[in-house]
Inverse folding.
């Protein structure tokens, strides 16, 4: 696995770099770096972890991540089964921190952009009509050239800074406590949970994945993520349940068991706690 702290200097020039991905599934690790990053998912679904925030993502997902904020995208399990009909496609734009903060922010009339960059330390998800407009620009920016590509980037930044339709992701008190030595251990834990959340996850099993005792693992996970391991698993399961509830072909009971819960009572309890409403009320909204 790559180091948790990724240094982009060897590939990122003085301004920005655009990368387009079209793969069977996203191949990345839970990482952070000192520059800014915009990620637009053209096609694909799964779970996204940014700081201490866990959420489902789907086609059109648009996120702006600030410096030193850990992040990772995991596709749904069926992507790893080799289905030829599924593709993971995204556009990733890396923006040099020094260029953005010391050059761009010195331009006139950039107060709104400065406020947007302040928010990205916790991660920003763009929603609403602005997401569609920015997504259309992002979808073609990889093939733009020269000044046109720079113009497209500035148009994206303008749209992001102007829209009120944005969601702050990581909690206000989130603190990045990761270091390079924890790379393999934490990634193994995340991958284990993403692949097994729909079945029973025993603390002893995941502690074995981390090569730790259960008590030591609980302390370690809390320190690294600022949340209990059981809370993390329930957030993954409830997020998955939300996606299934938007699909009418499954009953509430089927969603419960598909999401890893063994009883409707527990499912309803944790769903209400995390989503703020019952599964039935959530489904009725869609």
């Amino acid at each position: 696995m790559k180091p948790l702290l990724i240094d982009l200097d060897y590939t990122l020039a003085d301004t920005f770099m655009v990368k387009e991905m079209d793969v069977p599934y996203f191949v990345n690790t839970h990482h952070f770096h000192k520059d800014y990053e915009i990620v637009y998912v053209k096609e694909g679904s799964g779970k996204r972890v940014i700081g201490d925030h866990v959420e489902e993502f789907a086609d059109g997902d648009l996120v702006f991540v600030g410096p030193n904020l850990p992040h990772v995208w995991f596709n749904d399990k069926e992507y790893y089964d080799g289905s030829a009909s599924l593709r993971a496609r995204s556009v990733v734009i890396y923006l040099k921190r020094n260029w953005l903060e010391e050059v761009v922010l010195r331009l006139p009339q950039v107060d709104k952009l400065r406020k947007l960059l302040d928010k990205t330390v916790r991660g920003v998800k763009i929603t609403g009509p602005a997401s569609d407009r920015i997504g259309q620009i992002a979808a073609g920016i990889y093939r733009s050239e020269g000044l046109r590509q720079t113009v497209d980037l500035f148009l994206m930044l303008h749209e992001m800074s102007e829209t009120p339709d944005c969601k702050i992701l990581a909690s206000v008190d989130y603190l990045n406590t990761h270091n390079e030595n924890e790379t393999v251990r934490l990634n193994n834990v995340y991958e284990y949970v993403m692949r097994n959340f729909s079945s029973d996850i025993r603390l002893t099993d995941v502690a074995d994945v981390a090569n730790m005792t259960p008590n030591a693992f609980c302390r370690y996970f809390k320190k690294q993520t600022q949340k209990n391991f059981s809370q993390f698993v329930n957030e993954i399961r409830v997020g998955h349940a939300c996606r299934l509830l938007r699909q009418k072909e499954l009953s509430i009971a089927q969603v419960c068991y598909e999401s890893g819960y063994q009883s409707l009572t527990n499912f309803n309890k944790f769903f209400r706690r995390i989503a703020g409403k019952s599964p039935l009320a959530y489904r009725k909204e869609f």
In short: The longest helix spans residues 146-162. The radius of gyration is 19 Å. Residues 215 and 268 are 28 Å apart (CA to CA).
